[in-house]
Batch of 4 targets.
Target 1
Amino acid sequence: MIEISDHDFKKLITYIQKNYGINLSQKKNLIEGRLSNLLIEKGFDNFSEYLEYVFTDTTNLEITSLVNKLTTNHTFFMRETAHFTYFEKQVLPYLKIKNKEKDLRIWSAGCSTGEEPYTLAMIIAEYFGKEKMFWDTKLLATDISVNALGIAEEGVYLFDTLNTLPKSWKLKYFRQVNKDNYQVLDEIKREVIFRVFNLMDECFPFKQKFHVIFCRNVMIYFDHATKMRLINKFYEITEPGGYLFIGHSESIGRDETRYSYVMPAVYRKG
């Protein structure tokens, strides 16, 4: 394994935190473990030369590859089930009554390999049933990892990973690809728009505000100041009465945000 010097370590973590919000100050071993093979593949025997190569690459392909290696994309269907239950039982009925334009705007920020937005799409399909044809229910799903988004767009998952879903959904919304893998059906895949997006971008380029934002288990990598800046940006692009769902380990102090607390890791804009 190639070791990284203190100078290069500081240089790298400063860049990653500034541009992606991710705090890797306690992750020196992780960086060495995940990037050593990448250095060898590209013909470098030290981090100094590799980082110079990455930071001078005008195509941004190398920094994208580096970030893909360092970001963890662990997720699964129906993760933190209470959130999805609340979304189905409370949020959707509220939006169905309130939204006269029949236009749901939902953002899965940090969607990883797609399990979260596909779960939301299936819940929406189940909730609206035949009425769904009268609604615009497409979800935006974003992540900084090109690799994770590639898996999400393909929508192919090991059969065992579907065990957290209702059995009827496995039959209704997936098709068997081979002995071990199942793929999300097109009717659900068409409901999700996947895009590369960096939550640290200064400006969020959305023309309309969102009724619901899911950003769960993403901010665990951010320091407190970065997390609160992002929360405030989310607030500005949330419709009045709209909801923010975050991870259970990412709680916000009630005096730190303009959102109102609803239940653990669920907040609402008044």
Note: The chain has two domains: 6-70, 81-268.
Target 2
Amino acid sequence: MRRRPSVAFWILVILLTVLVIAPLLWMAITSFKSIGESQASPPTLVPQDPTGRAYGEILTTGGQNPVLRWALNSFAAAGLHALVVVVVASMAGYALARMEFAFKRTIFGVIMLTLFVPGFVFLMPNYLLMDRFGWLDTLWALVVPGAAGAFGVFFMRQFFLAIPKELEEVAQIDGANAWIIFTRIILPNAKPALATLTVLSFLSNWNDFVWPLYVLFSPERLTLPAGLSLLQGAYTTDYPVIMAGATVAAVPVLILYVFVQRYVIEGVARSGIKG
């Protein structure tokens, strides 16, 4: 019989939950405070005079801080980036998992080695490429770089290795070619991995802060993380406005994870079955 979790286990779970949720709650609570109360010492746990001024300021259409426009930019960039990553990674991962070709292991080894290269090393080469393509200050500068990342290829390869080969062999006997096997048999069985990679890619692009600052110059084309940095004043800090912007940025990804968490857990679990 399986042992029931001990009291110490549940205490640890509760503590970890508090550590994760407490900053989110504090962020949301502060967004409803006045400027003076947000800077009070000691801080107040509950707003004494709740106000929605911060949300009215950032959500006003055509205002000084077009947070809604930044949110739409982030959605477009993160969504397209996730789509491109899933397409590229699934095709490359399947080729490395199932197909035989020259220098297969060498190519996979080189791809894995790029995981150990710090991301900042690619900033200048990617910037020069975007400049050469004429994509600076455009949506494509946020979508294309990193779309063929090593992690996605490795993640999908590991998942495809766990899918029984018998499924493909039966399809080959029925006359199916490689493309039909990939699109009609492999991909439908890889939904957990595809959902997981989509979420991870979306979040990575959504939370990216440094790269948009390099390639976006127009205030109306900024993404949420880069745009929220403009809410920091030179001489004073409006903490409720900053926290309201951060709350707006956090809510969509939390909702996304709630809907796909089952696929994420299954995808991560199954991707490590076979090496």
Note: Residues 69-271 form a domain with the MetI-like fold fold (CATH 1.10.3720.10).
Target 3
Amino acid sequence: MAEDVTREAGEVIDALQRIAEIEDLVERAVASSEVLADYKERAGTLRDYQKQAIDAMRAEKVPYRQIAARLKLSLGAVQNIERGHGSAWGTKPRKKPADE
């Protein structure tokens, strides 16, 4: 099963590489726009998949480092996702300034 997942992810990565190889600048930009629009719609669901896996493994008391290795994420990304911050720094909620 893990082999199938790796193959599926590899096919997506290969498709993205083929976009990078499009010589016509306009065609490459159009293809990029289509991919980015689709990703924008799916990004939340993709993050949910990561959080569900992390939550399930934490419920089984799997250490963070093992989760990170299994999911091919950094330790910090696993901890951030578990907290609901996503995996990127930009997805963390901003703190409100203290009232003076």
Note: The first helix runs from residue 2 to 20.
Target 4
Amino acid sequence: MSSDEFFRRARERLSFDVPAGLTDASILAPTGDFGTDAMLQIIAKERPVRPAAVLVPIVERELPTVLLTKRAEHLNEHAGQISFPGGKIDATDASPLNAALREADEEIGLKPSFIDPVGYLDVYATSFGFRILPTLARVRPGFELTISRDEVDDVFEVPLAFLMDPGNHKLGHKEFRGMQRSFYEMPFEERYIWGATAGMLRALYERIYLA
């Protein structure tokens, strides 16, 4: 799929309507995996909802790439994992989009002037109680990044074509309270992309590439 076709479909299929499931613990979109669905239902009853927003930045190069970060090793949650720029939605954020743009600037110095937001994907719930709303965005090349070492160890790009190839979407398995649940893995070179990040990339694939 060409870059123009990818973004044409994205603009047709995405919007900036905020899903109720971002803040309503009673609303959980089924994942299709029994173990994961059961886990999320349990987590929703045991932990307060933690609304968050991330930017899914597609860099408009000759061959488009996805900009990803490696979280700092000293963090208390998800240390060293591959992530999108983003974080919790603050009370001062006008919208999840504003939260994603703010976090991208704070974490890696990606300025809003280079970012063309396209729309929201579906809410992605995690075992930590986060409800993450991903914002797909087209990013103009030419930006210079400044990494906040308090939050991020590294920033890198992965070809969009690799991440959108279902042949690169592997399934891993974990146990949660006696139930097996699955999660996506997308290893790329020395980078291990998995969990929520891989899950949101898979959701992007299903929303844009599948009819």
Note: The radius of gyration is 16 Å.
